[in-house]
Design brief:
The complex is a heterotetramer, with two copies of chain A and two copies of chain C. Chain A is α/β, with parallel strands linked by helices. Helices cover 35% and strands 10% of the residues of chain A. A seven-stranded mixed beta sheet of chain A has the order 1-7-6-5-4-2-3, with helices on both faces. Chain C is of the alpha/beta class. The chains are: A alpha/beta, C alpha/beta. Chains in contact: A-B, A-C, A-D, B-C, B-D, C-D. The structure holds pyridoxal-5'-phosphate (2 copies).
Amino acid sequence: MTEPLLSELSRPGRVGQRFASPEQCRGAVDDLPPELLRGELPLPELGELDVVRHFTHLSTMNHSIDAGFYPLGSCTMKYNPKVDEDVARLPGFAQLHPYQPEESVQGALEVMLELQRLLAEITGFAAVTLQPAAGAQAELCGMLLIRAYHRERGDLKRSKVLIPDSAHGTNPATAAMCGYSTISIPTDSHGNVDLGRLKEIADQETVGLMLTNPNTLGLFEQEILEVTETVHRAGGLVYGDGANLNAILGAVKPADLGFDVLHINTHKTFSTPHGGGGPGCGPVAVRDVLEPYLPKPVVARRPSGELYLDWNRPRSIGKLKGFWGHFGMMVRALTYISLQGGSGLREISEAAVLNANYLRARLSGVYDVPYDRICMHEFVASGRSQRQYGVRTLDIAKRLIDFEIHPPTVYFPLIVEEAIMVEPTEAENKDTLDRFADVMLQIAREAEENPEIIHQAPHNRVVGRLDETTAARRPVLRWARVPAQAASAPAY
Amino acid sequence: MTEPLLSELSRPGRVGQRFASPEQCRGAVDDLPPELLRGELPLPELGELDVVRHFTHLSTMNHSIDAGFYPLGSCTMKYNPKVDEDVARLPGFAQLHPYQPEESVQGALEVMLELQRLLAEITGFAAVTLQPAAGAQAELCGMLLIRAYHRERGDLKRSKVLIPDSAHGTNPATAAMCGYSTISIPTDSHGNVDLGRLKEIADQETVGLMLTNPNTLGLFEQEILEVTETVHRAGGLVYGDGANLNAILGAVKPADLGFDVLHINTHKTFSTPHGGGGPGCGPVAVRDVLEPYLPKPVVARRPSGELYLDWNRPRSIGKLKGFWGHFGMMVRALTYISLQGGSGLREISEAAVLNANYLRARLSGVYDVPYDRICMHEFVASGRSQRQYGVRTLDIAKRLIDFEIHPPTVYFPLIVEEAIMVEPTEAENKDTLDRFADVMLQIAREAEENPEIIHQAPHNRVVGRLDETTAARRPVLRWARVPAQAASAPAY
Amino acid sequence: MAFVPLTADEQQVMLREVGVDSVADLFVDIPEHVRFPQLDVPPPLTEIEVVRKMAALAARNQHIGQLACFVGAGAYNHYIPSVVGHMMGRSEFYTSYTPYQPEMSQGTLQSMFEFQSLIADLFEMDVANSAVYDGPAALAEAVLMALRITRRDRVVLAGSVHPEYRAVVSSYLDGRGVELATSEVELRDSGLEERPIVDLLDDRTACCVVQQPDFFGNIADLGAIAERCREVGALLVYVVAEAISLGLLKTPGAWGADIAVGEGQSLGVSLSFGGPWVGLMACKQEHLRQLPGRIVGATTDQQARRGFVLTLQAREQHIRREKATSNICTSQTLLALGVTVYLSTLGPEGLRQAAALSHKKARAGAERIARLPGYRVLNRGPFFNEFTVLCPTDGAFVRARLLERGIIAGYPLGRDYPGLQNALVLCCTERNTAAEIEQLANGLASCVS
Amino acid sequence: MAFVPLTADEQQVMLREVGVDSVADLFVDIPEHVRFPQLDVPPPLTEIEVVRKMAALAARNQHIGQLACFVGAGAYNHYIPSVVGHMMGRSEFYTSYTPYQPEMSQGTLQSMFEFQSLIADLFEMDVANSAVYDGPAALAEAVLMALRITRRDRVVLAGSVHPEYRAVVSSYLDGRGVELATSEVELRDSGLEERPIVDLLDDRTACCVVQQPDFFGNIADLGAIAERCREVGALLVYVVAEAISLGLLKTPGAWGADIAVGEGQSLGVSLSFGGPWVGLMACKQEHLRQLPGRIVGATTDQQARRGFVLTLQAREQHIRREKATSNICTSQTLLALGVTVYLSTLGPEGLRQAAALSHKKARAGAERIARLPGYRVLNRGPFFNEFTVLCPTDGAFVRARLLERGIIAGYPLGRDYPGLQNALVLCCTERNTAAEIEQLANGLASCVS
Ligand SMILES: Cc1ncc(COP(=O)(O)O)c(C=O)c1O
Ligand SMILES: Cc1ncc(COP(=O)(O)O)c(C=O)c1O
């Protein structure tokens, strides 16, 4: 059953929460000039039980990690230990005002400092900022750092950012936000950056290269050292998109590969839950030369041992977001890393990589796998050979829904036709992997024998396939206004 | 989809939680004689994610108050404000050891004392014990108090407990647990205790009368004062089953009606969640003459103001359960009563009664309502006129499930043929009541026009009607043993 | 605050449908002179106010996260994995009723079935019910069961059974003409000693109740007692107050118990100042129909899909009324769910670890305290995670002194065992650290003057 | 601990299927000399240990449940109804991804649609997106939007806009050749005064950014500014840092804003030391295709059932790459859900109350402090729930003194406004009690020496 909108459930006069009796509020705003006050306040009127039932119903219309497999490539949808949530909700973390005097938040500053140190160690870099809100903002941060670096060196003519054609959309979008132009670097037949082309293109106008490694094909760049070396020789810096860090924890430190900056998505690698589309948290790790430019303030320790926020950072790029970043996510990430320990981190990547290769092995043959070599934490298959039966990757994705499995990422990366990008993560057990593989193989058989069932999928959800074209052509982006009866005039 | 059993999900070697490395445990129990140790420990082996998915899946197979209407007569399935849960989980309440020194639990003892006072005030009695675990244990407690009272007065020949034929099963079962015999009192044509019969039966062998008021027909005993008077004249006491207290908060104090003892189900009236079948909490309120017999210990205040547990109660009936009762439920009940306040309590009963009468009015005519007068918080309809179409109350109940509505209590009270006992509670809004009435009327139409659809209901649940006869004849009450491989020998 | 969702307009419509003028008209059956009394209950609080009020009350307690906890005595401070609370916190579980309509309650029913299975396996007994109120109530029900099964009228209790458990048995038996015999516990030079319970058993005895580990922490060979029970035809009723011990110790089933009961609190249930917890109850197959409480069975629907139902309801009050095996109705399902989540999260390895570490720390504590001048450990044989210490002075006094140091120093035996005024039962779990044990020892040492 | 569920046996089977001998063989593409480095990361902790560690860190903070909180400055201590946390805590919400597959994500999608509707109505703007990172990022995106829409290259900011918001705008604009002009704020005898921003507007100006209530708490008539914007063809960008004010104040839409942004933290989001919160963003219909971030639209399936989808994705990076309106990808959906639950729980009456009580208490506080010798309230006109106070001494010093009394005494303006070293911005919400206000006043009085 679909669920009515809040506005449709509203009944004039219902109240979910009051903070005082109406009498206690009377006269409260008499001193304010009426021309500064609003008229109607057309919010829905509901009781607490209405609210609870509404959102409980809505929740049941979602798939989620806690309910089932979610092999969304590039997204690292892994299970988050429940204890992370408990820790983040401790009043000593959740109920801190960002502008409390520093002496009253020493524990919180310690969390930040320790997490910075751990992330620096794991990635091999000299310094880390925790401020960016998510990967995309971290990219902006990193590119601003690179700009500041070139600028301080008087190297002002650099304006081109090199980006592999397999890159995530945020990379070119970020370069553009910085006012840079972008040059696309092709992928070679092994799934690596085309080193030859890179060498031709990299020059004194090159700001840098934005590189994801393992790349979005799930493959480790086989000539990574030469790639980064090439950019450095041209005077550019190498920005690492760390969205795929889950593959290489304890396996390699990105700094050792020649990256100069790297962002980390804690909401992928360090297991802060994804919340239906955020919040994230995008720490940025840098080489020592870039450290002076990090956003302010920076957590620092006085000789007395006391921690404080250092605003005195004259070379800083400034602020990226309000306050100090997504502290709640930092608490979870530190909890998670503490649970795993150094040995556990390596186990994570090992299992993530083994799981992906296992699924690749089980599916390849029936599904095309364009770059069929040992992959890292994910691999990209293609639905192109199913096309002969009139079945497209989108159809396969929708059919998976019938089995309560979330479809993999589809049609990305753009360089793979009918792409199906599968990232199982280390959190899943072999039974789950086998079931997924069995279902995928069954769907491949159905494509031949009974494509109708695939075309009509999904069958059992609250809605079937939705008309996205009309949604975009004639956008309906809000409800019809709530009838604001009881709500019409300010009561006091 | 049905869900596998934990035992079926188990894989040797999987671990959800460790408390130490295996090495740290080694040697830990070397000092214990092997003949005192167990062999196999055949528990299922699962990871944390397996556990989360399993119970998340199971949860989605339940109906619940947060998901929908639950008009189970006699059960008072009302919505519980979420803040109750938050308060009960405060470490200062949830993490107290019952044997902490009293100086370290003054706040907890204050909660108990205040709740006792409030319950005494609401019911009109002199004293309250919070110790019983639920209504049934409260009944045991109350009957033991009554026994102690008769015994101390040397009145040893009383052995018969009078119980109306409409009573809940716990009433006769409790009397029997005390070693008493029971005499059933019929219900008159108005739905009241048959006063004439009561007068004939009550005599010097009468321990007392166990009376629910409003009774299980949802009706207020119209001659309640004469009923209690009759029992008192015979030297018996009147035990009040307070399961239906939700109807009369602020409307009448049961002590004013002649009851001597009354139990309260906080899990009904004072909104502690029902947990799929408990926990409950069954405070017992008594007249002053019964106070000395209350279970020990009793919370008391020293002249200094300090609270303590008074064990020095020589006339006490002893202990009913471990420690001081279901403290977690007491915290919720106090929170709830504090939120409602005196005025809110009366509003609760008024709305509960109005809602029940509204539904009675909407359904009567189409469904038989055997005692069709103003009811209190619930009413009992009957499916007997639907029987002519081959549809029974059980079928109607199952058909409601198709509409995501939990069926009312059915086939109780026993004195109403094909009983359908509806208790909407005050927590539901008019839209929900109307939808229920509409669905019930639709089902009545279906009974005439399309009984098949009713017989086959429910249609959309994870299972259809289950074979209860085989379940009872050849009971399967546990899983086949988990293969205990990794688990076979103690590792240390 | 604002829990009644009816608006004034809706109320009018409804009153009209009912055919009365006002809400007050619905209450006319209540005798007028007692109708709508004044209630001396404070006015409603807002949610903000109520949270402030309750948080202030909570803050007047020192909780065990703030203290070093060395008290057990039937209530154990084991670690509860985070996942337990998250699963119990699913509103589908905690806001549902007893699963009377199985098609709408398979979640609860299957988890109850799993609980029964886990408890039966943990105890190595044939069948378990799906919980009763708590350990003491479980024992009382077991004794009533034994009386029904044997039709005898004498009950023998070991004096080393938890005093609260014994007190509850005694209340439940009040006035039923049953003789209760209890073995005595004495303080000797060699330590605590309990008079042989076998001497109390005779052919009138319905059951013999023993607790393992006993209230003082001891673990004993129960072979002779089980043997003697068989000889006289009494049932062996076995109490497990500290269920974590079953990760390690020989089980009730293996010792030959006829009925085994226990407290499930140790297995994932918050201490919560004593409740709600969950009573465990299991028995031999032959006694199944005398077992009280809810029991869930597996069955199938018409399409042969597996499902679960409440079964054997002919034992219960709502069907059998005065002939029921017990009056129990609302029980402890949510807590049983907690136990089920806990045991499935720990699995065999986790549970063994919890038991082994609890024992190891208790042993370390006992060894440390035994070396303190003025203190004596009274256990004469092996113990699990509790041990009894004789202090140089009154046990309650020692507790008060140690509370000042942030330590809960055990359970003072004075009220229950008059000869043991100076004794404390101390407890360790996997949560206690070596540093805490050291603090305890130092605190105890400071009480010697 | 133990998060990788593969057992050793399973691993072997899987390696065989993949066709390699060991897991290490899967990592051969990594240059050997940097493969499998040592990590200086401590060994794994058990859950018990990690909870102990983190709880100890948390205990080194004083949280606002333990303090009387009079600081706002873009972060507001409003009461969050219990139900908000319970709904956000549904794992179906917090463990799902961005709703790329609408059939499996209707819960998230519908709640996002509801969020957009609520924000549009609250702001009285035509359309809202479904959130960006936070208030400052929303402002930065709004400025970028204005630059794109007007194709101009000058941005005017009121000096009374939150300093962090202004700093973020400045970083986002770095190196883009945009001129940033800011109106000055000065301390006069009559109080704080801001130089007229209208004087800064010209026909190169893409947008004029104002905040209401402003950083000092003031509420002003913005009619003239809106008028001047229209004249010069600049967009009016309106910042609401304290969203509760919209329960009471004339809205951005009513003032004529072209783009309105805000911080949603006030509306049911935990302070959490500054994040994660949620940026609100709304605009006039005509600018819709320049709006960044996720947008959800209503549509239907083939059976004409209503459903919701991510729409207008041609604005977004995953489709348009370097031509996208923004690079934003992961956003703040869970927090937007919190706002949605909050607003639907409060409804018009609750939100009006929160606003009215916050104002009432702030007024009471300001009146009380204005009477203290040595203190001066600098607001010259009406204010909402914040007001600026000139202290007899350094603001940071006053804060430190009051912390000793358990009070957070406002935000010291010294770092951001060098002339206002002695000034504090103080804030009240519906949570502050009269007793707390009295403590604050007494504390401030004690700083006068
Ligand atoms: C490869 C890659 N880069 C960047 C991003 C952007 O990160 P975020 O969503 O945290 O902004 C993603 C996330 O989906 C990604 O997969
Ligand atoms: C009328 C009546 N009496 C007694 C009881 C028993 O109460 P409890 O379930 O709390 O033991 C109930 C509960 O269903 C009831 O409805």
